[in-house]
TrEMBL record:
Residues 516-545 have a biased composition (Low complexity). SUPFAM superfamilies: P-loop containing nucleoside triphosphate hydrolases. Residues 5-223, 287-520 form the ABC transporter domain. It comes from the Bacteria. Keywords: ATP-binding, Coiled coil, Nucleotide-binding. GO terms for molecular function: ATP binding. Residues 514-545 are annotated as: Disordered. The keyword Nucleotide-binding applies. It comes from Agromyces tropicus. Residues 561-620 form a coiled coil. This is ABC-F family ATP-binding cassette domain-containing protein.
């Protein structure tokens, strides 16, 4: 594999600390590297050094000639005065980018709900972030640096991004370096992991699961000061090894060592004990939603009459004591409405909500509103004002902890205990927010996007805390690893109904793909749409060009128009099948014996035939679209 870029003896200092000291590493073609580490240890700084955005105090970064480097950083760099179209495709002619399947795929995957001709400055922060990511991904890069690319993406968007970066290059081409707290994404995409800590970058083989295994082995040999983190990682490894086969099959080495490490490790949760405690704290009744529908009024000036939108339709859900449920759904599906029904913030339009007499609900919100009144107080004072002790665990393993010990368990140092709340980092505020809620001892806990601003270590610590929490847990999150880790059941809101998901997030994604396929095969309106279709699984081939087509009077009418629309829909389906065949052909080429030139030539000829077929269909797609547009 050819070398792309390298760093030699990098040294970087900030006024208060040394970030990197004598760091040497390299990136080769075919590398897919995930970067993990605690917040503030230098993950983003490392990417900026390697991408040439930041100069080191010592050492150097060398880049092979003609290597093209693209980077997504956490800053919002998109011109707010530009339109989405200008920001994404710039001055490229429409017929050029509309005929590029990669561009159409990116637009369909990231910008389904973004107005194509809208001004960037008028978009939400999450939409601007996706516009910046789309503008980067349509370019041709040899090395991609992505800093938290999964922020503001839902479960489907994250799955789409994983598929995109895996299919972006052939097996031994290009390189990806990604910083993310999304552990599913790390496991799905990455073949190597760099851990940034204590001024060094430590490499590990494999994705997140393999990294956890190697880290447990490293921690087992570490000093006694590492004992607490070692036990936490053992628990994380135990869950990984007991999890889905797709996850546990990733480590390619020392499986026996992993089994020895966890053979005496109990399950991460004792559901029988936790459910027993939950019943004793809650009683048998928690919250029952019985034939509940929620209808909101919507503005519809054209109708001349009040219009409504049904968010939830005749939904029935009986929440049990100790139930741990993850709730999935696209933005706007009704997840927040469902949670507000449980908390009582939203009354049902029809049906009724029945609550147990002892139910005490607490919500970990995204806004950190619970900390506003404590902004000027020290962390230690805030926690001391709540409770003097907290019982952690259950049964014979129950341990009484002081608030200080709880803070230490969540990663706070002695120095940070004297810090005013307003001066804490985003991740520290998030941990303090959760702690204050747990000290109130609710018996129903709702987590609304709890992973914001947290690194992988802190996520593992919070999951460990929740493992021993004896209550009913409802989780809404785009982090599928967290959802699968802390809940025992997953449900989805689809078309206003609650759908059980025995196979978890994978089943949800399959259902969403089926919805998109059904919608694409149904009779459609003219192709001249101002935006790309909703969702990353919509027909990518029609999305890109449809996004930029201007609405105008149709040239065809009657039977001719219906025939043209039918042909356009057929082309969309054929293009989607061909793209899947091309991706499979690339995988065949990557797996084929590279010394078998005859076989490689035959596979190459097949690939060129598929690409020619795509080009012909794209030309016809544009011709039919122009006829429909007039």
């Amino acid at each position: 594999m050819a070398h792309l870029l390298g760093a030699e003896r990098l040294h970087l200092e900030f006024p208060t600390r040394t970030v990197f000291d004598e760091v040497t590493l390299g990136i080769d073609e075919g590398d897919r590297i995930g970067v993990v580490g605690r917040n503030g240890d230098g993950k983003s700084t490392l990417l900026k050094l390697l991408a040439g955005r930041l100069e080191p105090d010592g050492g150097r970064v060398t880049v092979r000639r003609d290597v093209r480097i693209g980077m997504l950083d956490q800053a919002d760099t998109v011109d707010p005065e530009a339109t989405v179209a200008e920001a994404v495709v710039g001055g490229i002619e429409e017929h050029v980018w509309a005929g590029d399947p990669k561009v159409r795929d990116v637009i369909a995957g990231l910008l389904g709900d973004v107005p194509w001709q809208g001004r960037v400055g008028a978009l939400s922060g999450g939409q601007r972030r996706r516009v910046g990511l789309a503008a980067l991904l349509i370019g041709d890069w040899d090395v991609l640096f992505l800093d938290e690319p999964t922020n503001h993406l839902d479960v489907e968007g994250i799955a789409w991004l994983a598929r995109h970066v895996k299919a972006r290059w052939a097996g031994n081409d290009g390189a990806l370096v990604v910083v993310t707290h999304d552990r599913w994404f790390l496991d799905e995409v990455c073949t190597a992991t760099w851990e940034v800590h204590d001024g060094i970058v430590e490499p590990f083989e494999g994705g997140y699961a393999a990294y956890v295994l190697q880290r447990v082995e490293r921690d087992r040999m570490a000093a006694a000061a590492e004992a607490k983190r070692q036990n936490l990682m053992r628990k994380e490894l135990a869950w990984l090894r007991r999890g889905a086969p797709a996850r546990t099959s990733k480590p390619k080495f020392r499986i026996e060592a992993a089994n020895q490490l966890i053979e005496d490790e109990p399950p991460v949760r004792n559901p029988v004990e936790l459910n027993r405690l939950a019943v004793s704290r809650l009683g048998k009744d928690v919250v029952d939603l019985l034939d509940v529908s929620v209808v909101y009024p919507v503005a519809d000036a054209a109708a001349g009459e009040p219009a409504t939108r049904t968010v939830l339709h005749e939904l029935e859900w009986r929440i049990a004591p100790g139930e741990r449920t993850g709730i999935l759904g696209v933005n706007g599906a009704g997840k927040s409405t469902l949670l507000k029904l449980v908390t009582g913030e939203v009354p049902p339009t029809t049906g009724r909500v029945k609550r147990g007499k002892t139910v005490k609900v607490a919500v970990l919100s995204q806004e950190l509103a619970e900390l506003a009144e404590w902004a000027d107080d020290r962390v230690s004072a805030v926690v001391a004002a709540q409770r003097t002790s907290y019982v952690f665990g259950s049964g014979s393993k129950a341990v009484e902890l002081t608030p200080g010990q709880l803070l230490e368990r969540l990663g706070f140092t002695n120095a940070q205990l004297a810090t005013p709340v307003k001066d804490l980092s985003g991740g520290q505020k998030r941990r303090l927010q959760l702690l204050l809620i747990l000290l109130q001892e609710p018996n129903v806990l709702i987590l609304d996007e709890p992973t914001n601003d947290l690194d992988t270590d802190m996520l593992a610590a919070i999951e460990d805390l929740l493992d021993a929490w004896p209550g009913t847990l409802l989780v809404v999150s785009h982090d599928r690893y967290l959802v699968e880790r802390v809940t025992d059941r997953q449900v989805a809101i689809l078309d206003g109904h609650l759908r059980d998901l025995p196979r978890g997030v994978d089943q949800y994604l399959e259902l969403r793909r089926q919805q998109a396929t059904d919608a694409a095969s149904a009779p459609t309106a003219p192709a001249s749409r101002p935006t790309a279709p909703t969702g990353p699984t919509a027909g990518a081939s029609s999305a890109g060009a449809g996004a930029a087509a201007a609405a105008s009077a149709p040239a065809l009418a009657g039977a001719d128009r219906r025939a043209a629309e039918k042909e356009l829909s057929s082309i969309d389906r054929r293009l989607e099948k061909l793209q899947a065949q091309i991706a499979a052909q690339h995988e065949k080429l990557a797996r084929h014996d590279q010394s078998d030139y005859v076989g490689l030539g035959a596979l190459g000829d097949e690939l060129r035939g598929l690409e020619d077929a795509v080009a012909d269909l794209e030309t016809r797609w544009l011709e039919v679209s122009e006829q429909l547009e007039g």
